Amino acid sequence: MNKKVKLKNIFGEDLDLLIEGNEKFGDVVIFVHGFGTDKDEGFASFLDFSKFIKNDFLAIRFDLSGFGVSDGEQYEFQFQKAAGDVDSVIRYARKIYPNKRINIIAHSLGTFIVSLLSP
């Protein structure tokens, strides 16, 4: 399965999501990229990893607002806004895939953003 989704964040900006993998059996894995990159992460590491797990998991890769092809500007980056983007993706995953466990893989600045959601 390969599906592109435009998801609104709390500011009404479109976040660009790519959903890949096994929708029937796999749990969800959300990838959160670092600063200055996009849903593929530097050197396409998230792209490679999502291809590796596609038979066993449902991968959701997305561009934070201001990065990649999501709406917004990179100079507008704020930690709380980025955490809101991640929260929007988690809420979407819970709504669309209510019976699946959600896992998060984050890299670089993405790890700090995710930690803001888990006090």
UniProtKB/TrEMBL annotation:
Gene3D superfamilies: alpha/beta hydrolase (3.40.50.1820)
Signal peptide: none
Coiled coil: none
Sequence ranges assigned to domain AB hydrolase-1 in this UniProt record: 28-116
Recorded superkingdom: Bacteria
InterPro entries, per the entry: AB_hydrolase_1, AB_hydrolase_fold
A Pfam family assignment: Abhydrolase_1
Name of the featured protein: AB hydrolase-1 domain-containing protein
Species annotation: Candidatus Roizmanbacteria bacterium RIFCSPHIGHO2_01_FULL_39_12b
Lineage of the organism: Bacteria, Candidatus Roizmaniibacteriota
